[in-house]
Amino acid sequence: MEAEGRVPGPPLPPPSLGSGGEAEADPDPPAGSPGAARGPLLAAAAEVLALDDEEDDLEVFSKDTSLAEVNSFSPSMPISPSSMINQYKFEDEPELRDLFITVDDPESHITAIETFITYRVVTKTSRGEFDSSEYEVRRRYQDFLWLKSKLEAAHPTLIIPPLPEKFIMKGMVERFSEEFIETRRKALHKFLNRIADHPTLTFNEDFKIFLTAQAWELSSHKKQGPSLLSRMGQTVRAVASSVRGGVKNRPETFTEMNDYMETFSQKINVLDKIAHRIYKEEREYFNEMKEYGPIHTLWSASEEDIADSLKGVASCIDKCCKATEKRMAGLSENLLPILHEYVLYSEILMGVLKRRDQIQGELDSKVDALANKKPEKDLFSEEIGKLEDKVECANNALKADWDRWKQNMQCDMRSTFTNVAENNLRYYEECLATWESFLASQTVDLHVEEDSEDKP
Amino acid sequence: MESAEAEPSDSRPEEDGAAPRSGLPPPEQPVATMEDCLAKKMEITVSEAEKRTGRNAMNMQETYTAYLIETRAVESQSEGQCAPVDSLWRRYSEFELLRNYLSVTYPHIVVPPLPEKRADFVWHKLSADNMDPDFVERRRIGLENFLLRVASHPVLCQDKIFYSFLTQEGGWKEMVNETGFQLKADSRLKALNATFRVKNPDKRFTELKHYSDELQSVISHLLRVRARVADRLYGVYKVHGNYGRVFSEWSAIEKEMGDGLQSAGHHMDVYAASIDDILEEEEHYADQLKEYLFYAEALRAVCRKHELMQYDLEMAAQDLTSKKQQCEELATGTVRTFSLKGMTSKLFGQETPEQREAKIKVLEEQIQEGEEQLKSKNLEGRDFVKSAWADIERFKEQKNHDLKEALISYAVMQISMCKKGIQVWTNAKECFSKM
Predict the structure, then answer these.
(1) Which residue of chain B has the CA closest to A22?
(2) b/e map of B138-163 (b: 16 or more CB within 10 Å)?
(3) Which of B51, B65, B85 is nearest to B143 (CA)?
């Protein structure tokens, strides 16, 4: 089928060992070889960390993150997914990772008013600012929401990681079903770890309190800070100012970002739909396959000569059926959550860009107001100066975070889709082995028959 | 008194491969060996299919498909000189006529089935339309297969009507009808009646009947599920095709990831497109199974014939027994069974001795005839069982061989599909890892 309107890409490189033709210091390791993948990784680690005992230092890295938030510093270094399966991580900053967070052990709490789930959040750290090196607290979804809104307020133009949604409309999953809770737990775990990996957010005070405070401490801390009403007022004013200004004086970079995000958002949403559709089709296929194998077994009961062949086919089909189930599981554990996360990210990023525009809008409207009040210029110039600083900070923060986000996105996409490909490879290789061994058994029988015919 | 019971059919070992007698022509023709089979002497193909329009029996316009049958004599050790090809056109209804003729004329033979009249076990892509080119093509192959099966059958290949079907363009229909085979056909009602009422059929035929029922049921079930599986598999592959377009559009806004995305998308397109050929091949596998689904019906037909003959025999024996009894009663004057005649004669006076004598004489003649008939029916029955069973054994071997090969070819298809999948996903993985 010809895709119309497609920009023709470069001719496909023949599947070969290395990357071929790219000028890089380190050759790409062949995919799927963990040893080779770690080779250049270690070499680079040695360069960047300048440490003697690379192995020992690598041991320190977290072992329990599900997906690598790998390195945004050197995107040219491909991370083989199998090395990630070994669950080693590599940080970009020269400091070692010193904050390890896990979210697990969901528990149901029933009070007179409501039922809710809490999750255990365990933090291990070597940082000085923390009084202890290990913390264990219980948090509920509301607490995560609180944390996110605090981070957004403190850093309006930083990209705060997405939280899993309150409800899932699609798929009609029960609020307290095991599947729902597990999906949410994994997403919450990722949320906290992404914050921990963020160069700025990781040092946020509310984040620290979230990780360390006991339940009552957290409640009382939450009550401080701007009231709900005042926060709402802020939001209204911010929206109003953004409508007015910000867009006309927007620097080129941010217009590009906006355009990019619009397209990205569209595409990621479509991908999300496609991935769900594939999952659905695979499940339907699996359901039919479940019935397909046993028919052959049933048939074999009325046959003599071909009973073995029929049973063989039945067994092959059943094995392929199981392989399909594994393939589906791979999809739902890997691709679906990541695509979903990036759907949420695209909304977050649009929000961040808007907030930047708002901040700029505040400045612009003050500048406009000033233009009509020449004699009072001096009074306002200090205020303008502050706003100008604010805009510059916001812009720089966003730019840096944007670059970081893009690198991470690229890595995530690369590793996720590579994993999808590996999943499918595994599936086909399993099925191939099954059918080949069946075929071998059948041709052996034929040879045996021929031999016995030759005998007088 | 001779036993007048119907003997349960069993095969007699003394006769050796001779064609069965009475009612089953032609008695003089010997059975061909594998080497003499028509298939070895003549190349037969159904090479083309063509849409035609014509007028039917009610002078209404109709559209139908005609099939070109080409035949050529196989010259052994021909020196680069090929015999000329003969050809003629036949439509499906003529094939049906041929098969009906063969079924009636050789009821002890498991007659090869025709490909289905209407598309059945369709999955969504295949149209159920008889004019659909894919359907027509598969039917062409099925018809060729039918002719080859008949031509390689030791008994059927000798048939003159079959030979004429292949070689004589005009007047074939008239020739078939002149054989009067339709008159020899057993009525369905008669056959049904016999199936229910027969008392002592050969056990092997009863088992065969059960087997053919099971075969029919399991193959239809399998074909139904296979069609659904094919449908779902189609869905899985085709949805992946959506990746191609999205990746391409996405790659337009990416600098570093663009190339990887674009080329991966291309591989997803290849993946999605590959399912069409895969499933088309599988249709041929399904057709092989279908042939045996229809063969089950042919097996049933032979069983039915046996039941009919056996029932006929049982009825004749019963009739003979009752006549003998009547005769005895008249002769001895004892009434063992209640009969209206007996009652009326009691009520209205006995018959005269002359009347009685006359009656006895008639009965004795009938009994004589009856015994002759019973003897010949018994022989017929035994012959039928013997020759039918010989063909059934031949059929069983053929079936086991063909089905085993079909299963092997299915495995080969699956292997090929897996290899293609591995190739595509290896390529895709390479592209993804370069994103």
Answers:
(1) B434
(2) bbbebbbbbbbbbbbbbbbbbbebbe
(3) B65
Whether residue B414 and residue A289 make contact (CB cut-off 8 A), yes or no, is no
- Per the CB < 8 Å rule, is A425 touching B407? no
Give CA separation, B404 vs A308, B279, B400, in Å: 10, 20, 6
Residues from chain B that touch A7, judged by Cβ atoms under 8 A, are 248, 251-252, 262
Question: Residue A34's Cα: distance from chain center in Å?
Answer: 22
Q: Would you call B236 and A295 a contact, using CB atoms and an 8 Å cutoff?
A: no
The A residues from 7 to 46 touching B (CB cutoff 8 Å) are 7, 9-10, 12-13, 15, 19, 28, 31
The residue ranges of every structural domain in chain B are 36-74+83-194, 203-334+358-434
Interchain CB distance below 8 Å, A422 and B429: yes
User: Pairing mode, if any, of strands A134-140 and B42-55?
Assistant: unpaired
List CB contacts (< 8 A) between B269 and chain A.
1, 3
Contact flag B407-A285 (C-beta cutoff 8 Å) = no
Q: Do domains B36-74+83-194 and B203-334+358-434 have the same CATH topology?
A: no
Write out chain A's pLDDT in tens, 456 residues. 344 434 444 444 444 443 333 333 444 444 444 444 444 444 443 333 333 443 333 333 333 333 334 433 334 444 444 434 333 344 444 456 788 999 999 888 888 888 888 999 999 998 888 888 899 999 999 899 999 999 998 888 899 999 988 766 555 555 667 888 888 999 999 999 999 999 999 999 999 999 998 888 888 887 776 655 555 555 555 555 545 544 677 888 889 999 999 999 999 999 999 999 999 999 999 999 999 999 999 999 999 999 999 999 999 999 999 999 999 999 999 999 999 999 999 999 999 998 888 888 888 887 777 777 666 666 667 778 888 888 888 888 899 999 999 999 999 999 999 999 999 999 999 999 999 999 999 887 666 655 555 544
Sign of CA dihedral A252, A258, A262, A268: positive
The answer to whether the beta carbons of residues A209 and A225 sit under 8 Å apart is: no
Min Cα distance B405 → chain A (Å) is 9
CATH T-level topology, domain B203-334+358-434: Substrate Binding Domain Of Dnak; Chain:A; Domain 2 (1.20.1270)
Helix B258-332 and helix B203-251: axis angle, to 10°? 170
Architecture of domain B36-74+83-194: 2-Layer Sandwich (3.30)
Tokens of B96: 């049906």
**Reported ipTM:** 0.83
Inspect the interface and report whether the beta carbons of A10 and B241 lie closer than 8 Å: no
Give chain B positions within 8 Å (CB) of A292. Answer: 222, 225-226, 229
A442 contacts B425? CB cut-off 8 A = no
Q: What is the CATH number of domain A249-455?
A: 1.20.1270.60
Report the chain A residue with the minimal C-alpha distance to residue B269. A1
Structural domain boundaries in chain A: 249-455
* Window 192-251 of A, Cβ < 8 Å to B: none
Amino acid in position A400: A
